Structure formats: structure tokens, C-alpha cells
């Protein structure tokens, strides 16, 4: 069996692959990283200075869609990417949009406006607009969901990834997650899974934020 390690930060987007690893029943070593004290060793590991990072033996993998793919490949019978070709396509459709738009653009602007402008006086305006675009994304998620799973009739990595942003929404001023009942039902279903309960304990998190 390969030696698998996951570098994570509690409550960050790394929560999604953390859930996926435990859902698949994969043996791995969780390694906690704090944003306040990124070590030089971690920077050597991932010069992008971002989590999560997945290592499979000596192979270092970054970026959520790639990491989720690698996890699924370790346990293909877990169907973490979906149960047929179309579901797998839909899973990547979701993951690319979540990672690029909702995470990178929307929450990225809210949490780190300095990445998008060198003018501090613009930070507040950027953050206020980020709230608007996050709500638009949440409206889109709510519209797309028809069940407690985002893809098909079973759990996929998309459900775990959506949990991340639902939790972030709960702690964002100006956003009321009760406005998104189908999204909240999906998040509750994920939190009821044994894999997510274990992750909440390991990362010392409450369920909502």
C-alpha cells in the first residue's frame, strides 16, 4: 500500500479531501498546517503555499480536482467521482466551478482582497461585492440541487466540497444559509456521515462553522 499523507488546515477547503479519504476508508497520515506559520519545509513541498496537499509516496498533488481524482483512483469501487461516465463528467463540472469561481474568485476576494488589488482603499468595495457574488453562486447551487446529493443518487466528492462553502457561508456576515434549504439539507446529510463526523472531531470543528 502507498504511503498517503494529507496536509490540511482545520475548516479550510482541505476539509473536502479529508472527508473523501475517510469516506473511502483509505489509510493516510493527516498533517495539520496553520496559515499563520507556514514552514519552509511546507513551502518546499508546495511552492504555491496553499493547502490541501496530497502525497502518494513521493508524488505531490495539489489543487482540489486533482486531489479528489487521486483519492478516487485509490479506491475506484467507492464511486467518489460518480457511478457512470455522465456522473463523472458532472462531478468535474461541479468541482471546476466550485474551485475556480466560488472559491478562487468569490471567497478569495472576500478573505484576501489584497490578491486582487494593490490599493487598500478598494478592499471594502471588493469584499462587499464578493458577498453579492457568493449569494449568486449559492442561488445557483440551490437551483441545481434536487436531492441530498449533487451528482446522481449517491455520495460523491462534490457533496464534501459543497460542505466547505456551506460552513463558510454560515460564518459570513450578510449571508443567511436558511435561504438555501436544499443546500442546507445536503450539508446536513454530509455531516450525518461517519466520515464527516470523524473529520469534525479531528479538525476540532463545530458542524456549522
From TrEMBL:
Keyword Transferase: yes
InterPro entries (UniProt xref): Glutathione-S-Trfase_C-like (IPR010987), Glutathione-S-Trfase_C_sf (IPR036282), Glutathione_S-Trfase (IPR040079), Glutathione_S-Trfase_N (IPR004045), Thioredoxin-like_sf (IPR036249)
Family per record: Belongs to the GST superfamily.
Alphabetical keyword list: Transferase
Gene Ontology terms, MF aspect: transferase activity
Name the UniProt record assigns to this protein: Glutathione S-transferase
Native species: Microthyrium microscopicum
Ranges for domain GST C-terminal: 84-209
Gene3D superfamilies reported for this sequence: 1.20.1050.10, Glutaredoxin
Pfam families xrefs: GST_N
PROSITE patterns documented for this protein: GST_CTER, GST_NTER
